Each structure stands twice: as structure tokens, then as C-alpha cells.
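Model it.
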Amino acid sequence: MTGLSQPMSPPAARPIAPPVMLARAALWAAVGFHLLVVEVMFALYGTGKNGILTAAKFFGLHAALLMMLQLTLIARIPWLDRRIGMDRLTAWHRWIGFSLLWTVVLHGSFVVLGYSALDDAAPWTTFFALAAVPAGLLGICAAAIIVGIASVSFRFLRRRLSYEVWHGIHMCVYLALLLGMVHQFLEGTTFSSPVATLYWWALWALVLGALVGGRVILPLWRNHYHQFRVAAVVPESDDVVSVHVTGRHLDRLPARAGQFMIWRFPGHNRWWQANPFSLSAAPNGRSLRLTAKAVGSTSAGLRHLPVGTRVFAEGPYGAFTSIHQTKPARLLIAGGVGITPVRSLLEESYVPTVVLYRVPDLRDAVLLAELEALARERNALLRVLPGRTGPGNAPFEPQGLYALVPDIQHRDVYVCGPPRMTEAVVKSLKALGVPGIQIHAERFALA
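Modeled.
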């Protein structure tokens, strides 16, 4: 444990408005603007052959808009990701996905009912007649894929599937997207105005451009440019290992302390095996470091990586950084291997800082020697809190946090650890009256 005094250098100037609020406002303003334009175009040029088919077109149009929004949220647009965070963007993507499910079902149902009324035929007869037409068949297949993907995304099914299986099924959404777009093109009856049609397809081009740019072009370019390779492998404990990665021009990689990257090690693991590991040291322009606990075959095998192994890294990602700092002091709370992004944040910290490190036993406190050295250099207060939570040992209850950090309301609080611990800490912070804008917690996971 070391003492707390004054920062080594003045903190950077804080923005007038928190970046997360600006990013959310920009995102939803753009969504609102395009939604308004499309609603006006539909009102002017979207009438169907009867009232039921007009409703079908309405739901089909909004299903496409929801799909556009979903793709935008997972496009990994750097500006949004650094301010909102991949975890929140992914959570929004998931819930919008369920809205998409019901919108697609309503669209299909109204199409069948509308043509059934138009042709004075039974609904099932109309369904098979539509399936015999290329545009109809493509739409039915796209809808079936979306229903299937949404079904395995319900929590009780999702938890029973490995990430690789779930991800493989989820990737079929791109097939549904392709089939749906061809379906739209063949139908060609959404808008009766050429200008409205041009706007619609330009909107699609913008969304697909962002998706391909963020998910394909940018990662490929960065890996070609930086040429990441394993420089060293350092065991930190029996089940924790650090991997040092070097490359070219790392000073131009826009990585910040607290962020994570998605790591692949081609030749050592299968190409689809990827893990999101935080940067456990602040980027210095010469190397990157990840520190991982062996919780699966991929992470367990990291200690056997040969030096010189080629690395494919996506990112950096995440909003767990100092750009969200709103107060001239901070509290860093870590549990278990959640210390890795906290350690990197401590390394770059030049404001009065308190670090609370929760571990089952002192022997589980990985990177402790580094933390103690950094705390001395940064004049930070480091407290290691060992033991299991129970009567007499509940440091993250409101009274426990207040006793450890009496000025907690005047600090930005960064929390990283197991989900249950993080939820308990956030709940206590709110009970202590810490404003939400000062609470920073991020889930480092792919899904």
C-alpha cells in the first residue's frame, strides 16, 4: 500500500459535454433524421394495392430500417465505439434484433393477408403462390433466417451454445441481408418516386459502406500496416500469462489505456478462435501487452505461443478510457483478472487516484508488484482487498466503499471485474449518490 498525494502533471482539459452524451445525441439524431425522411417518403409515395398491403409495405420498410440500424451498431465505427463502447452498442443491437423479428413477422403476415384479400384466395394458397415467385421466395427465406437467428439469441438457448456455434449461426444474418436486398430490388414497389428510391438505396450504401469499412477493410489494413508479432510470453502465475506484441509503426495505432483488442494467433489456433483481451499496459508506441487467465483452450494455450508468431489483432475497441473523465480525481476498482485494464489506466493516471483490487486470496493478485511500483510512481493509493464477500468482509457495499473512499462522489469511478461484482459495485455507487456520468463500467466480451 502506498500513499496518495498530488498528480505528477496537470490533467488534460475536460470536454464541455461528456463524449458519450455527444455520441449518443449524434447517433440518435441521425437515426431520427433518416426515419423522418423515410416516413415522409412513405406517406407520399408508399401506398399499396390495398390497405392491408400498404400496412405490409410499412412493416417491410421499417424492418429494413431496423436492419440498417443493427448493422450500424455492430459496424465498429471507431468514433462511436470509443465514446459509447462495444458492449452498449452490442446490447442495443441485440434488443433491436427482437424488434426486427416481430416487424419481419408482421410484414410477412400482412403480405399474405393482403394478397389473399386481393385475389380472394385462402391465406395458405396465397403463401405457396408467393413462394413460387423469385421475389417472394427470397423474402420468405430471408424472414426464416432472421426468425432462426432471433430464436437462438434468447438467453435460455444462447447460454447452451458455445460462442463459436452461436457466432456461426449468427453470421447467417449476412445471408438474410443479401436475400432481403435482392427481394427489395426485385419487388421495386416500395416508393413510386425515383428521388425517394435513390435516397433509399443511398442510405443502404452508406450503412453497408460503414459495415465493410469497420469490420473488414480497417482490420485488414491495420494488420498489413503494423505486422503484429509475438515478442515475448511471460507467465504471471499458474493460470495467468502475459503476451507482449510488437510490430511496425505502433506509435500510429490509436490505442489508449483501458481498451481491448480482439486477438487471433493464426498457425497456433484456428482462424475462427478469437478472444477479446484488454491491454494490460498503457500503449507506448513500441509494443502492446495482453494478460489473460486460462479459462478456455484458446487462452490456456497462450503460454505456449512461440516468439515470432504472427498475430491478427482487431481494434483497439472500448470506451473504458480517460476521455470520459469528468472529475479531477479517479477511483479504479478491479476484481480478479479485471485488473488488466485498470493497471493500464493507473499507468497513464496523473490525477489523484485510488485503486481497490479485490481478490479471493493475496496469491491471486496478479501484476501486484507492477501495481505497487506504479502506485509509488503515480502517488496513488493502492488497496488489495482479499477474501470472500460475507459478514465483516463486504468492501463493495455502500458503507464499505464510503469508508475506503470518503470523497467517492467527487471522483470518476472505473469498474472492471466479474459481472456480479461489477453489478454490485455500480448499485452501491448509485446508492452513494455518485452520478451516472462518473461511473464507467464496460463488459469485455464479443457477445
